[in-house]
Amino acid sequence: MKLLKPLASTLLLAAMTVSFTAQAADAKRGRVYYRMVCTVCHMEKMGGPISPSSKKKADWASYLQTNKHAKGKDTVKQYFSKEYRASIKAKNQAAAKYAEVPEAELMDDVKAFLSAGALDSDTPTSCD
79-90, pLDDT tens digit by residue? Predict the structure, then answer.
């Protein structure tokens, strides 16, 4: 029994350390990337932006999880890849600025921004 208390304390401390050191999604960075990369591309190729408030939180989460973009013609993840950012960084400041950010981290940042600005959020965000 005496051995269990120190072991439990050590495990609890380790769990707390991991939770404090894990990086939280950065919705501000997600907003910059979304507006400067996603919105710009949609303006050029589709003639208009897709605002965060065009979908509910669950819809955005499902869209990102399903990983199908352009009606399944390509993936969402490819637009967060380092290769994609490298291909547009000469003409896109956000792609250049975030060139070395891990793909999953950047995608989590955009997901946080979309969730915060979704139709059913406290602060729906449009692209106007």
Answer: 999 999 999 999
3-state SS record for 2-50: CCHHHHHHHHHHHHHHHHHHCCCCCHHHHHHHHHHHHHHHHHHHHCCCC
In angstroms, rounded to a whole number, what is the distance separating the alpha carbons of residues 73 and 6? Answer: 55
The owner of tokens 């869209």 is 63
What is the pLDDT confidence band of residue 3, given thresholds at 50, 70 and 90? low
Between CA 60 and CA 72, with CA 30 as vertex, the angle to 5 degrees is: 40
Cα–Cα dist 67/53, whole Å:
19
Q: In the beta sheet, which residues pair with residue 74?
A: 69
Count CA atoms closer than 13 A to 126's CA, side-chain side: 2
Distance CA 28, CA 23 (A): 14
